[in-house]
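Q&A log
Question type: sequence-to-structure
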Amino acid sequence: MSAGVNAADVLFMQNMIGHHAQAIVMAALVPTHGAGTNVQRLAQKIDISQRDEIVMMKEWLTERKQSVPDDAHALHVMMPGMLTAEQMAKLEAARGVEFEQLFLTFMIQHHRGALQMVETLFKSPGAAQDPDIFRFATDVDADQRDEIFVMTNMLNMLDTNRGSPLR
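Response status: OK
Response body:
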């Protein structure tokens, strides 16, 4: 490992790859499951940002000569906020307003898990001293908090509109 990088940093990056991969799988369902325009835009933003961050995390690990999890393996490691197989099946089966409600609820759960992962990193002795991982972890924290706020408002709009889709 390079100076300023410890095992907690590496584990955070390796696990966050899988965490992001599941968010991409979830977002990929949106266009085919009857979600409205607002949820589609949100899913598109999540997809783009998570893909970009996965590339960055893989490069970070490679540059430090650390193991890079393959995408198939990364999806099967359970981390905070990850959806269970049952939750994923429920999401895949839903359509329209029910899908929007589940997508938003599950993505909030997923994002809260990412916040727990960042918190664990920052509580680990000597972790997040590398400027790149510190910047990335603080960006993840800020982005996830912002998106949780947006998704909570979208869920509230669904409830206020008595289930009318977010169009």
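Response note: The chain has a mean pLDDT of 91.
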